[in-house]
Amino acid sequence: MRLDARRDSFDELDRAIELAEPIKRAQGDIESGGEIPHDLITSIKEAGLFRLLLDRSLGGASRSLTQFIRVVETIAEADGSAGWCVGQGGVYPNIALYLSDCLAQSIWVEKPSAVVATGTPNDCRAVKHDDHYTLSGRWRFASGIMHADWLAAMSPAEADDGSPLPYGMFLFRRDEADVRDGWNVRGMRGTGSREYRLENQKIPLDHAIRVTDFSSRDGPSTGLPNHLLFATAFGSVGIGIARRALDEFAGLALGKTPTFTNKKLLDDDLVHVGLGQAEARWGATRAFLLDVGEACEHVFDQRGEVDESLKQRLRLAATHAMRQSAKVVDQVYELSGSDVIFDDHPIHRCFQDIHTLTQQIQGRPSHYRAVGRSILDLDPDPAMNSRR
What is the pTM of this model? Predict the structure, then answer.
């Protein structure tokens, strides 16, 4: 149950709610096809769900952080893979105003439905020449690549004499890459996270930015850097998946009588306790993320920036959302019995998806340590002390 009566709705959230049922109905196709079907992703694009954080000057919605959270969790509740794609793809417009005007126009104005995807670099190399870079390598886990228009490939960089340059991110059109499969997974199967390759691809200088600039620049609608927006997006996905598991279990409990018993799940005291605990964990987890999100919005509105201590709290809330959502799903899975061990059961999908989510870098337990050290006014990374 969402206690959102005090929070106003808005156009994109209304559209996300309308899309939830069609997405649920398409889950079988999403799973079997390993990507979101074309007609469905077209509807998601047309609903503006990838443009929530894009500045209005480029045709975006300039939505706030909590509005972003609510849309992503709504789509993730319908399907984890769809929520993941909306969350990750929705972050890239946050940096649009830091790109050259020409590049930003090419990506988001020439094609209003455009989506940017990335990938994890493997054996990559970018070499800077007088008026361009040449980029070669392989990138894995490119979520949303099957419906993306542009790719943002990360790579170490060097001058043509071999001297090192700052680690870069290089933007180019998706049809310039050699896209391959490489997504043999059970959880988050529908994200279409293929791999892609390039060989001496020519990248204009104004299509290259430092990775540190990409991850650290504060967006105009949230005052937050991309690395925290990714974390928040994935925390929102976790909350949506957990909500779906809870609701599916409530339906299961109404009709199931476990084998070799004469007591329905509906009448089992242990089920009542476990479900109550799971609901409390879910509600507290979501409230924490939204509470910190609303605090970030307030401070940004009042001061024009979000202070570092609040950013650390957002990191904590986002990591906690991912990991606590997994505990909610685990509890539901255990209460459900053997009905949910089959691939086509919604709770089984939730179980697979949530445990893929927690393996992502944004869900690492080490974030707790970093935030704890920050709260104590210590360097978040203890390894930094040994390098001084």
Answer: 0.94
